[in-house]
Amino acid sequence: MTRLPEGFEPADNLLEGRTILVTGATGGFGKAVSLALAQHGATVILLARNLRMVEGLYDEIEQAGYPTPAIYPMNLEGATEHDYQELANNIESQLGRLDGLIHCAASLGAPTLFAQSDAETWYQVHQVNLHAPYLLTRSCLPLLARSDSASVVFMVDDKQGAYWDAYQVSKQGLVSMAQLLAQEYSGSNLRVNCFNPGKTRTGLQLRAYPAADENDDLPLPRDHVDTFLYLMSVESSENGEIFTP
Q: Catalytic: which of 58, 66, 84, 167?
């Protein structure tokens, strides 16, 4: 496990001129990360399924005086390979390149005994948590290759043990995919890392453990944004690591 370098303080213009795509941009982590990226100078592509919510986030960023973001509504549950390629084509035509990609979107499914799990939930969770990051990252690799210093970050989790069948398997698959990419692109302009936030007060955490006594005392997504800022910046050189708070 790797941590944010001690003493890291993000400059106001840390990400100036950089274009970064965030999936699940209106979720707990996605929104906090998108706002932080924009605050530090990035042009953020906000990918989320709820148009009204993503338009609200767009307005919030614009009203704060940050670089104007881009909106891309997409439901990852039903998106196809063609949809991801079309997204990459649109980024190329409108922005020319991509400097960063952060996979914040996630589906929890429902904790259940493996023998009682259902195929529909299994497919849905893997579609969002594993297939979508695979297809989107693959489609964006040519755009990332145009950046002098590109970075991809996968959000992972360690709900190990019983009952977390689809969620656990999909998140472990993300770790394997990230490490594979990191090895293949070692020494290139592209860095690939994971971030495991641990227990954080998000909607997903509250759905997973609604009665947990510690929920009110958990850190918020905004408490973790410096790690994302670092990984998206040219100050970062790590590759193939799993960052933790």
A: 167
